[in-house]
Amino acid sequence: MTGNNPEMPVGRIASLEAHARDIRREIVSMVHAAQSGHCGGSLSSADIVAALYFDILNIDPARPRMAGRDRFVLSKGHACPVLYAALALRGYLPVEELSTLRRNSSRLQGHPVAPYLPGIDATTGSLGMGFGQAVGMALEAKMTGAGHTVYTLLGDGELDEGLVWEAAASAAKFKLDNLVAIIDRNNLQNDGYADDIMPMEPIDRKFEAFNWRVIKIEGHDMSAIVTALESARTRSGKPTCIIAHTVKGKGVSFMEDRREWHGKAPSDEEKAKACAEIAGGRS
Ligand SMILES: Cc1ncc(C[n+]2csc(CCOP(=O)(O)OP(=O)(O)O)c2C)c(N)n1
Ligand SMILES: [Mg+2]
Q1: I need a labelling partner for 213 at 20 to 30 A (CA). Which of 33, 229, 249, 265 fits?
Q2: pTM for the complete prediction?
Q3: Ligand 1: nearest atom to the Cα of 40
Q4: What is the rounded distance in angstroms from the CA atom of residue 65 to the CA atom of residue 67?
Q5: 72 part of a folded domain
């Protein structure tokens, strides 16, 4: 696995870690306000999404449809609190709007809806479908000679979907080296451990056999995340899969690796405890 990179400036990493803490706080706060939504898989990917939105992606909140922008597709669409938090903190929408999560007429529905909100490139929620959309976007970029990169984030339970593997085969066939798929390998789905429900290991060798380049990282090590995302950006003739080993619910002790926090809202007391832990830098 890619570990701490001594070359990585400390300030850059510390700043991204602070952004990840802010994202985590907003995840817990908006799911608490809605009394509905997905904390676990949002918290497990907060570090990855912070690195993307505050460092890696070539995007401009003032021009959300900017030509040549990098694309991000949240294929595990149920984890949209992490995306909404990143978009708000990056300036795409007011942070106060996050408290409208899942309300009637809100732009922040329980799964991301592309036309509703600037900065969302794909409507997702049916597992596996976002990955296919990302493959299509990367293919279009190849065919038109556009130079941007398409990133997509999948859950490990999502790998059970057959269409993931159809999309993986297509991406390799079309040599989509402008496509980066990140697997949030938290080993939990909604109903239990991913390895029990459908054993998919060896995930790395599966993607390699599909002719992908594979990078494995510790998904809460910001330096490792940034190093992997930077190296994934280099064109190699193959699509890149980053397998990020994470903890579901990361940053909140009573949510970590707990199946019930896949889709449960915190009470007032739980929210206060969670936010205190996040502010204390537990993550
Ligand atoms: C096609 C499809 N089947 C079932 C669901 C219901 N569902 C929502 S989340 C989830 C579990 C996803 O687990 P994983 O991909 O590991 O996500 P994470 O652990 O990152 O939250 C399921 C089965 C769905 N959204 N789409
Ligand atoms: Mg999972």
Answers
A1: 249
A2: 0.97
A3: 21
A4: 6
A5: yes
- Which tokens in the block code for residue 75? 């294929």
Does ligand 1 have an atom closer than 6 angstroms to the CB of 239?
Answer: no
- Which helix (H) or strand (E) segment is 106 a member of? none
- Domain containing 110 — which CATH number? 3.40.50.970
> Tokens 């938090």 correspond to what residue?
85
Q: Tell me whether residue 5 is in a domain.
A: no
Chain position carrying tokens 């003032």: 62
Q: Is the dihedral of CA 211, 5, 74, 186 positive or negative?
A: positive
71 lines ligand 1 (CB under 6 A): no
CB of residue 118 inside a 6 A radius of ligand 1: no
Judge whether 243 lies within some domain.
yes
Question: Residue 171 is part of which domain span?
Answer: 10-279
Distance from C-alpha of 219 to C-alpha of 200, rounded to nearest angstrom: 19
Tens digits of per-residue pLDDT, 191-233? 999 999 999 999 999 999 999 999 999 999 999 999 999 999 9
Q: Is 262 inside a domain boundary?
A: yes
d(CA 69, CA 22) in angstroms, rounded, equals 24
- Mean pLDDT by runs of 10 across the 283 residues of the chain is 64 97 98 98 98 98 96 98 98 98 97 95 97 98 97 98 98 98 98 96 98 98 98 96 98 98 97 96 60
Work out how many domains the chain is built from and give that number: 1
Contact 251, 24 (CB under 8 A): yes
Mean pLDDT, rounded, of the chain: 96
